[in-house]
Amino acid sequence: MTAGTPAVCWQDRLGLGEGIRAVDDGVVLVDILTGRLLAGPTDRSAPLTQLARLSVPLGAVSPVHERPGTWIAAAGTGVCLITAHGRTEWLARPEDGAATAMRMNDATADPYGRFWAGSMAYDAEDGAGSLYRVDHEGTVIRVLDGLTVPNGPAFCADGTVMYLADSAKGIIRRYPVDPDTGLPGAPDTFAAFDRGSPDGMTVDAEGALWTAVWGTGTVHRYRADGTLDRQIRIPATQPAGLCLHGDSLYVTSARHGLAAPGPLDGAVFTTRVGVRGLPTCTYRPGRTQ
User: Fold this and answer.
1) pLDDT digits over 66-81, tens only?
2) Are 50 and 35 in contact (CB under 8 A)?
3) Average pLDDT in the 129-133 region?
4) Mind listing the pLDDT tens digit for each residue in 231-279?
5) Which of 64, 72, 99, 236 is 20 to 30 A off residue 134, Cα-Cα?
6) What percent of the chain has pLDDT above 70?
7) Which residues are within 8 A (CB) of 57 and not within 5 positions of it... i.e. 6 or more apart?
């Protein structure tokens, strides 16, 4: 099936629009470097609605189970909760005091209610980044290091497979994950890119992986066996994050780093793709399996 031409949603042009997630009544997303958590209103001619603004970069959020309006966030140098009133409650700041200036980047919850968040150096220093896992009791644990610009992760429906991009390396790796311990095993290379960089990712209801390919104006869909199944052109140079809401694909983009941004760089786009997404997972504090 071929998707239609992506349509522009909302008036906004974001500096670094990423971390878009489907929620019950629409989508939420972030503008990383401005620290803003935003929601997409039903009226697509209206501006995005600001839910919270942090004083530090905001990489991505996931809803917190049974706490309406509360989010767990990869932000600044660590992980915090953002309450319904916009206050922040820090769980940990593991990148404080690092040898190079660091910030958190993309993040997501898995089907077991854990939260996973990547970190990177502001200057994308090779191997400076890590992947952290937040367990149910709120403990923040480094599970992978030696990454450069981690994006995703994205999980299959049963949570036993994790896809993680290292955008600077042009690679998506696939890891087995132990559902009881949350420990990732040895990865294999799922996809490698000669042009552009894999960025935000999501898995659909058929088990295929979608990724925004930064620098190419495209989104790729890969079957579970790694076969490239589909490419969708986005009218922006730097597609960054994506999600599926029903059978509609939403894609964020970025103006950051472009010497001469075009009129649609930084916009959010949507198009029908004929395949549904998985339910958005929530972080479940206090759950013991």
Assistant:
1) 999 999 999 999 999 9
2) no
3) 98
4) 999 999 999 999 999 999 999 999 999 999 999 999 999 999 999 999 9
5) 99
6) 98
7) 32, 33, 35, 75, 76, 103, 104
Say which amino acid occupies 14: L
Name the residue with tokens 């470097």.
Answer: 33
- The position carrying tokens 């970069």 is 57
**Type of residue at 70:** T
Q: Tell me which amino acid residue 72 is.
A: I
Mean pLDDT of 54-58: 97
Compute the distance between CA of residue 144 and CA of residue 129 in angstroms, rounded to an integer: 9
Report yes or no: 90 and 63 within 8 Å, Cβ to Cβ. Answer: no
Closest CA to 121 of 92, 100, 151, 106: 100
Catalytic residue among 199, 204, 229, 247: 199
> Pairing between strand 115-121 and 49-53?
unpaired
Q: At 250, list the tokens.
A: 């939403």
Q: What is the pLDDT of residue 288?
A: 47
Rounded to an integer, what distance in angstroms lies between the CA atom of residue 62 and that of residue 72?
5
Has 199 been annotated as catalytic?
A: yes
The residue-averaged pLDDT of 75-92 equals 95
The yes-or-no verdict on residue 62 having pLDDT over 80 is yes
CA 133, chain centre distance (Å): 15
Quick check: 172 and 198 in contact, CB under 8 A?
yes
Locus of tokens 């010497």: 259
